[in-house]
Amino acid sequence: MGYIPMGIGYAALAIKAGLSPIQTVSFSVLVYAGAGEIIAVTMLASNATIIAIILTNFVVNLRYMVMNTCVYNKATKTSLLLNVLSAHLVTDESFALFSLMEESSIWFYIGLALISWLSWIFGAIIGVLVLDLLPIVVTNSFNISLYALFVAILVPSIKENKKIGLLVAITAIINVVLQFVIGNWSLIVSTLVGALIGMEIIDDDYLLNDNDGVEC
Asked: Rounded CA gap, 155 and 137, in Å?
């Protein structure tokens, strides 16, 4: 259910960026990458080029390849067809939930991820229908919902390993500084630089430790 306010927040940003209600909802159906969608419409609002938007989303969403690999290594009674059909549904939240559960059925994962996808779409639909009826302070509050969720996911990892917190701070600083130099390309560069720095400061043993019950 937490996806519904995030979908509303995305819709607010999408409509503000000039997308029509149909385009806004279709984006959630066809793309379904919470952070990626928000990044795309934010860059669109700042007149970024299409190639910059595509490359930024490509880099940011590369993590889904790793997540899907982990999910299908854990999932039982699966097949190539089920993997292909369900790969579109992975998100940070559905991956985290499935990783922490003892349940390993591919059908359980599909049910979990499908409900999340439909909830996000439902939130986007609500957003395009009611945003004009809500006070501006309410619509603005929806815009931070996804970031708040990412913080909630990130904090436990930071508590467990302070180097991850340091890496997040370094990457954020690089992104902010580069925005004044290369504009909308800053997210791509800061993500790649942050990943390279992470390879040096984060221990491989920590990353490969199977604390979540998932072998990647």
From this structure: 27
Sign of the dihedral through C-alpha 113, 115, 117, 119? negative
Long-range CB contacts for residues 38-43, cutoff 8 Å, separation at least 24: 38/9, 38/10, 38/13, 38/146, 39/187, 41/10, 41/13, 41/14, 41/16, 41/17, 42/13, 42/17, 43/184
| pLDDT < 50 stretches in the chain | 210-214
CA-nearest of 8, 63, 17, 68 to 39 is 17
For 185-203, the pLDDT digits (tens) are: 787 888 888 888 888 877 7
210: three-class secondary structure by DSSP:
coil
Alpha-carbon distance of 107 to 72, in angstroms, equals 11
Name the token pair of 188.
């791509």
Q: pTM value?
A: 0.71
- Give me 197's structure tokens: 């720095």
How far apart, in whole angstroms, are the C-alpha atoms of residue 182 and residue 82?
41
pLDDT digits (tens, 9 = 90+) for 107-144: 999 999 999 999 999 999 998 988 777 776 666 666 67
The Cβ of residue 79 has, within 10 Å, a number of other Cβ atoms equal to 9
Contact 24, 15 (CB under 8 A): yes
